[in-house]
Specification:
Elements: H1 2-6, H2 13-19, H3 26-78, E1 83-86, E2 89-92, H4 122-130
Antiparallel strand pairs: 1-2
């Protein structure tokens, strides 16, 4: 496992040969594979939890930044200050325009653009294929999925 991790997850032919299963070693290696897959899954859960924790921190930091920006902007506007420069830092206000549409239903049709997204209905396709209907380029396969408990 350490060798695979050192290779950034790449399995070299030498490692592949050592990982290969033979009939006489199957049960021991299968159990070892199972423990290794469980270990990898456990690490993945830890990594996912850390990603979610960091995303929470990022969301909080972004919210704080937005609050501070709003407060300083409101203060500068209320005091009629357009620019503050001190200690190599400049805060300034600039004008911008924003279009506000209160109700999409009132927008004239000449200003509307169509966005059409077509996606296959996999459930209907699978049902029809299993019922015997032939659809070119579409098939249903049966897979064996490993469970580790």
């Amino acid at each position: 496992m350490q060798e695979i991790e050192n290779n950034e997850g790449e399995i070299t032919p030498e490692i592949d040969q050592r990982l290969g299963l033979t009939q006489e070693q199957f049960e021991d290696k299968a159990v070892s594979y199972g423990y290794l897959m469980k270990h990898i899954n456990d690490e993945s859960v830890i990594i996912q939890n850390e990603i979610e924790r960091l995303q929470g921190i990022l969301k909080a930091k972004n919210a704080l930044e937005a609050q501070l920006k709003t407060r300083i902007t409101e203060a500068m506007i209320s005091m009629n200050i357009e620019k503050v420069t001190k200690n190599n830092l400049t805060l300034s206000l600039r004008k911008s325009e924003q279009l506000i549409i209160q109700d999409d239903a009132v927008v004239p049709s000449k200003y509307l653009s169509k966005k059409l997204v077509l996606t296959p209905d996999k459930t209907a396709l699978k049902t029809d294929i299993k019922a015997g209907k032939k659809i070119k380029g579409i098939s249903v396969i049966t897979k064996q999925n490993l469970q580790i408990k």
